[in-house]
Amino acid sequence: MTSSRKSDPDSSSKSNSDKEMPLVAHLLELRSRLLWSFLFFTIAFAALYPFSQHLFAYLVTPLADLLTGNEATGETRRLIYTGLPEAFLTYLKVTLFSAFFVSFPLIAMQIWRFIMPGLYKNERRTFFLFMVSTPFLFVIGAGFAFYGVIPMAWKFFLSYESSAAVTGLAIQLEARVSEYLSMTLQMMIAFGLCFQLPLILLLLAKLGMLTSRSLAEKRRYAIVLILIASAILTPPDVLSMMGLAIPLYGLYELSIILVRFFAAPNKDQEKN
User: Fold this and answer.
1) What is the pLDDT of residues 164-188, one digit of tens each?
2) Is residue 52 within 8 Å of residue 148, measured between CB atoms?
3) CA torsion 198→204→206→209, rounded to 10°?
4) Of 218, 216, 150, nearest to 187 (Cα)?
5) Residues pairing with 176 in the sheet
6) Do 238 and 91 meet the contact criterion of CB atoms below 8 Å apart?
7) Where are the alpha helices (DSSP H) in 52-115?
8) Which residues contact 170 (CB under 8 A, 6 or more apart)?
């Protein structure tokens, strides 16, 4: 009896230690991956901040191109800031966005290395495909917004300028730098995230939560949700709203095709 009592605490502490060690190891691994991700982001931020004005100048290109026609009349167009730290904070936001964009592949690699050991073989292929496709689709969406929709939206807003001969006093745009950056990044991020729709639906189909038939049957509801999301995520004009809604609906139809051909249930769960 005595020996059995003495062995109980040892066995229980050993079993607790066996249960706790994997958790501690995972937490240490997670901390390591987060530290590496933070390091990559910090290095990217430090390298890009000296070029923050050039990055902002690139984002201003759509508006600057629309206003160059006024140079012939001798008018000088400008962006303004009304608070002392506004320009500084604007350049800071530009650098933060650019640093995250540049360092994302390295951060994604850390995510992949942390999650990969716990995945099955077929899950690894699927997850790797999603990791590669996510930034690719985000770039396409953000580029579509910057080069396609934003120039049309800015041209629409500038059409409400008028001369003194028409309105008595000239109505002319003098946009704030922070407001311009917020609208531009809002549209680019909104388009980049919305262009992830095929991946999200394909992942849900792989998990058995939906099928191509269910997507096709709920097409009418999808159209309503797409219009609502487009109205919320874009500036209050029809051009921007339809500029997001139309490609988003096209991606929904593409998702139906992808789910039909690539989301067949796979029951083989063999570990590597």
Assistant:
1) 777 778 888 888 999 999 999 999 9
2) no
3) -140
4) 150
5) 80
6) no
7) 52-59, 61-67, 86-115
8) 161, 162, 163, 164
Amino acid occupying residue 241: M
Is residue 133 within 8 A of residue 192, CB to CB? The reply is no
Measured CA angle at 204 (ends 202, 206), to 5 deg: 70
**Residue 232, pLDDT above cutoff 70:** yes
Both tokens assigned to 77: 């167009």
Packed helices 177-194 and 121-144: angle between N→C axes, nearest 10 degrees:
140
Give dist(CA 42, CA 39) in Å, integer. 5
Closest CA to 101 of 146, 71, 67, 70: 146
> Residue 135: what residue type?
P
In the beta sheet, which residues pair with residue 162? 171
Q: What is the pLDDT of residues 2-14, one digit of tens each?
A: 444 444 444 444 4
Would you place residue 141 in the very low, low, confident or very high pLDDT band (cuts 50, 70, 90)?
very high
The two tokens of residue 229 are 């999301």
